[in-house]
């Protein structure tokens, strides 16, 4: 048996659910479905119950405990009624559950130790008629169920665990990785786990896959997988360039040298304050952190705002001459925008080039503005242009973070925090205080891997 | 009388030679020419004597004491003979003089308080037949003499003094300014001093003048004045972009607001060491100076080497991340390459971006080179590429100047000094020690004007 096969065999033992796990899940699902049908019987409308998701298709990784049940109502039912009836069924089935809102309301709750989503949707003949994203799910389910046999389902489990291990699993906006549905489509399309890794190894982004050969749009994404149930949708739209590259890297590395550890998500020991200071001493950089109470938002709203804010901070620092080596953002109770600087201080003067001397109106205006101004050096002439050396607005990165942060694009809720002055700026060794709350994030930051 | 006219009147009184000065010069020139003709009589070849230059044409500025006499030999005389006979005549006329070498040898000496150049050349029918640059001079002389009347000659004197005042007079390679011949051509072409300033005010570089409308080449210079005696030569080739801009600036400023002081070359009080430190404190920059014994070269060889070296130093510092605000070079007994830095220190690490992860051969090579290397952070993946943070070669500007200066293009004699280690690097307040030798240069540097 090759290295590849023996590693994969060992991983299969971890990711394949045992017969007991399967049976328990099947039984719990049946009980839930019965309850749902009982609740539907009390409604003045027909509806059926459909199990979807990885547990419906046998593609869940051992230990995952998610059950997704969809309640399908007639397409003619007004949306308001659908929402009302959907919540009624949900609350009947999961009396301890809570209502959640994606595109429309559903109920989430626990049942016999499983995390259950009970979601109302429309029963449609064709995916092109969908009214909201959840209406698409039954079509996805049907498409995959028709194509997944037991072997492919097992390979889906391997591939999902592989993506989890490398940190690229999940279409949430924090991870920007591969959705479960996308992982399944790829394994179906390429024909197995190994085949999927071999194909990914050879990806040359932008990569375009169109299983049904029916694309009706063009996409500007590094990875495009046209939804077999919707010719206008890229299933991989959320996957970042970095995660595409990460998948290529790990596919290549694993095929070259199969190593079981790639299936284990990294969990580095947290750095303590002294550990952070050691890295800073070795690197001789100046870190800067903007710290504030994390806005009370779901992750899919929070992280895009943090990413936008991190990029804004880094761009602003760069523009003022505080060269950024690397930037990051983390959130827990507090949120941090972090930028590690090569240059944290600039002189009191900056060069300001004016127009070419021969551009008469503009050039005279520039010269007259500064001539006789004791606060500047010059104007003088260099390479055909007027030049002055004038006082620099912002001499330190700390000043920028304390006084100019609103000049850059920030996430809306982050901007409110900054506007209100509800934030703290840490510079240099001060950032080591973050280790208490962000020790693991700092450990990852100072030991970056693909 | 307008402001312009009254200022010009006062300047005329300073720059117009008195009748006594004219007469004395005429008489001295006649005596020199007689001596030269006597010396020629002893030679086995015919030759005549021609006075050229500003004193021949009445365009010299009062107090200038240069007499240029050319001895013209038949075109058929072999070059070696011309050089030998030329030196013979020169040494006869100026027994205390010394031999100098431009394109060919001539004799330079003092006579009755005048600085005399006695230069052998060929007598030619046409300027296109010239064998060396000096053969062109008699043609220049004839061209201007035919066009200069007393009024224009007086306006040439004004314009020359104007150029001297703004620091743009002289075609030497230190100044890279306007030659006397060029100044005269411009005044002839535009028709007077005021007309010349008005024309220059409106210059839009590149400016092309072709008085004889006979150009046979195209020139890539900010100012092109096609030599009336040579269709392939730009008389203004040496004029720097900065000096063109400087002329435009001062023409505009003087026409707007005639101020006699523009005719006076600046002579700022030298800065002392404390004065240098005051500027550095105010500017909060880090100056760096490379100091060595000035190579023993004529200025036309020395300054191009110094300029090239200054530019090389500045480019090298910039490339290593030590951002240069302004650079300069000065020479006296010692020579200085000076760069004022915004950033004099960088971290111990630098970002090193590798290839996109999907470029298989190249990317694997990069990854394998750094994977497991404890001296780097990473490799990790960012925006689709491998990245490492590796040790930076050069962390301080001083290190660059002390160890890496030979990586950049330097003038040949400067390079020898650096190769031999015969130089000193001053950083920060240390440069204030330069004030003893370069106080005036430092005063100009810290009070730059157009």
From TrEMBL, chains A, B:
Its cofactor is Mg(2+). Residues 1-22 are annotated as: Disordered. InterPro entries: CAA_C, CCA-adding_arc, CCA_tRNA_nucleotrans_2, NT_2-5OAS_ClassI-CCAase, NT_sf, NuclTrfase_I-like_C, Polymerase_NTP_transf_dom, tRNA_NucTransf2. Residues 7-22 have a biased composition (Basic and acidic residues). ATP binds at residues 54, 57, 140, 160, 169. One of its GO terms (molecular function) is CCA tRNA nucleotidyltransferase activity. It catalyses: a tRNA precursor + 2 CTP + ATP = a tRNA with a 3' CCA end + 3 diphosphate; a tRNA with a 3' CCA end + 2 CTP + ATP = a tRNA with a 3' CCACCA end + 3 diphosphate. Residues 283-428 form the CCA-adding enzyme C-terminal domain. Residues 155-263 form the tRNA nucleotidyltransferase substrate binding domain. The keyword Acetylation does not apply. Belongs to the tRNA nucleotidyltransferase/poly(A) polymerase family. Archaeal CCA-adding enzyme subfamily. A single active site specifically recognizes both ATP and CTP and is responsible for their addition. This is CCA-adding enzyme.
């Amino acid at each position: 048996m090759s290295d590849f096969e023996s590693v994969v065999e060992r991983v299969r033992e971890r990711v394949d659910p045992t017969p007991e796990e399967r049976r328990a899940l099947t039984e719990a699902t049946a009980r839930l479905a019965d309850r749902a049908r009982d609740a539907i019987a009390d409604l003045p409308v027909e509806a059926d119950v459909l199990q979807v998701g990885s547990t419906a298709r046998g593609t869940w990784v051992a230990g995952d405990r998610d059950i997704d049940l969809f309640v399908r109502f007639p397409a003619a039912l007004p949306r308001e009624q659908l929402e009302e009836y959907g919540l009624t069924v949900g609350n009947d089935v999961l009396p301890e559950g809570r209502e959640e809102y994606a595109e429309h309301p559903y109920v989430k709750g626990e049942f016999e130790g499983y995390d259950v989503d009970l979601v109302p949707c429309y029963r449609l003949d064709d995916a092109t008629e969908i009214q909201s994203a959840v209406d698409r799910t039954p079509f996805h389910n049907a498409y995959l169920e028709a194509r997944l046999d037991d072997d492919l389902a097992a390979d889906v489990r391997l591939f999902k665990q592989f993506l989890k291990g490398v940190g690229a699993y999940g279409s949430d906006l924090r991870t920007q990785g591969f959705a479960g549905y996308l992982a399944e489509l790829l394994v179906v399309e390429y024909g197995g786990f190994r085949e999927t890794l071999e194909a990914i190894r050879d990806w040359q982004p932008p990569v375009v896959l169109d299983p049904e050969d029916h694309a009706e749009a063009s996409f500007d994404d590094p990875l495009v997988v046209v939804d077999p149930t919707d010719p206008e949708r890229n299933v991989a739209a959320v996957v970042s360039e970095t995660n595409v590259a990460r998948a290529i890297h790990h596919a290549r590395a694993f095929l070259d040298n199969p190593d079981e550890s790639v299936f284990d998500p990294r969990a580095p020991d947290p750095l303590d304050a002294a550990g952070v200071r050691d890295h800073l001493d070795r690197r001789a950089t100046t870190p800067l952190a903007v710290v504030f109470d994390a806005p009370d938002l779901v992750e899919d709203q929070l992280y895009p705002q943090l990413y936008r804010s991190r990029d804004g901070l880094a761009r602003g620092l760069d523009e003022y001459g505080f060269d950024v080596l690397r930037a990051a953002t983390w959130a827990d109770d507090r949120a941090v925008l972090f930028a590690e600087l090569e240059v944290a201080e600039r002189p009191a003067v900056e060069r300001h080039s004016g127009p070419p001397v021969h551009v008469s109106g503009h050039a005279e205006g520039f010269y007259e503005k500064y001539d006789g101004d004791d606060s500047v050096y010059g104007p003088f002439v260099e390479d055909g242009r007027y030049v002055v050396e004038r006082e620099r607005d912002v001499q330190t990165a700390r000043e920028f973070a304390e006084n100019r942060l609103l000049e850059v694009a920030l996430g809306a809720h982050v901007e409110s925090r900054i506007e209100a002055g509800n934030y703290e700026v840490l510079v240099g060794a001060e950032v080591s205080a973050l280790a208490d709350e962000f020790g693991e994030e700092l450990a990852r930051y100072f030991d970056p891997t693909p």
